[in-house]
């Protein structure tokens, strides 16, 4: 990885980014154009110290999740984002999972601002989300990669999402669907170390996962209905549709109010209260 070129590119992209275009208040003249480091840190969901170290070339291994967060915050084009990933040592490989978020997908997420929306990679690890998702589900920015993985949460006694309620039957359908989808990913990404590590860790931790994995079922994940018990607005009944992007195989989760419920008014109330800016994982 070229830390010097990575550092220079980040500084250039930050300097050219119009603060107003990314939702930052501009109340007084600035000594320099573009975003301040603390603004980039806020938008990307990482610490300002980490931004400083990146721009000074003192950090050699920014993760793919951090690169995706920076690309989103800086509004990079698809070519620029691919360049960033290459500089950070995450070159595209047909056998490896992509965590690049194309500009077109970011535009779709922005357009769906009145719905909770989340992006996950092929391992079902949450990599990005919009403010309404954070307001509904709780802010995921302080969680580790494992804690943000849907399968890990379902099959272990670690971090669980107390806000989402499933009946035993609903959970059974959910985990079978997730495991079947994950198995299908192994043939598309046979060399990906993160996918292999997740399967190995789940196999060592959960007998339930092993039984489902050994069944050999391959299928795509299906639509599901969830009841989210929110501490401020009460029960929110939502349908979750999973859309898969063609080029990068990302999972775009779009939550819509269940027909016949009052979920729309509860989501509108959450949106009116206001939440954090579009989030991604912290370092």
TrEMBL record:
Sequence ranges assigned to domain HTH cro/C1-type in this UniProt record: 30-81
Gene3D superfamilies cross-referenced by the UniProt entry: 3.30.450.180, lambda repressor-like DNA-binding domains
Any Pfam family hit: MLTR_LBD
SMART domains in the cross-refs: HTH_XRE
Coiled-coil region: none
The name this protein goes by in its record: Helix-turn-helix transcriptional regulator
């Amino acid at each position: 990885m070229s830390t010097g070129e990575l550092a220079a590119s980040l500084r250039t992209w930050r300097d050219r980014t119009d603060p107003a275009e990314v939702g930052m208040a501009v109340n007084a003249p600035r000594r320099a154009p573009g975003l301040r480091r603390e603004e980039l840190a806020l938008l990307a969901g990482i610490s300002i110290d980490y931004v400083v170290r990146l721009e000074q070339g003192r950090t050699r291994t920014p993760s793919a999740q951090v690169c995706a967060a920076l690309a989103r915050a800086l509004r990079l084009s698809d070519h620029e984002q691919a360049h960033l990933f290459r500089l950070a040592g995450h070159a595209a490989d047909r056998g490896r999972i992509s965590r690049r978020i194309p500009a077109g997908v970011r535009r779709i997420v922005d357009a769906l601002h009145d719905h909770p929306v989340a992006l996950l990679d092929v391992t079902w690890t949450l990599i990005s989300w919009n403010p309404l998702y954070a307001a509904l589900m709780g802010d995921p920015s302080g969680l580790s990669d494992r804690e943000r993985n849907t399968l890990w949460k379902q099959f272990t006694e670690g971090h669980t999402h107390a806000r989402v309620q499933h009946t035993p039957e609903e959970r059974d359908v959910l985990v079978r669907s997730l495991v079947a989808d994950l198995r299908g990913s192994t043939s598309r990404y046979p060399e990906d170390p993160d996918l292999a590590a997740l399967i190995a860790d789940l196999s060592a931790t959960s007998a339930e996962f092993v039984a489902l994995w050994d069944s050999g079922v391959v299928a795509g994940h299906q639509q599901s209905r969830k009841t989210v018990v929110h501490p401020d607005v009460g029960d929110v009944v939502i349908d979750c549709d999973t859309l898969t992007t063609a080029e990068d195989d990302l999972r775009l989760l779009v939550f819509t109010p269940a027909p016949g419920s009052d979920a729309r008014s509860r989501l509108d109330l959450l949106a009116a209260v206001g939440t954090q800016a579009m989030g991604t994982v912290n370092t």
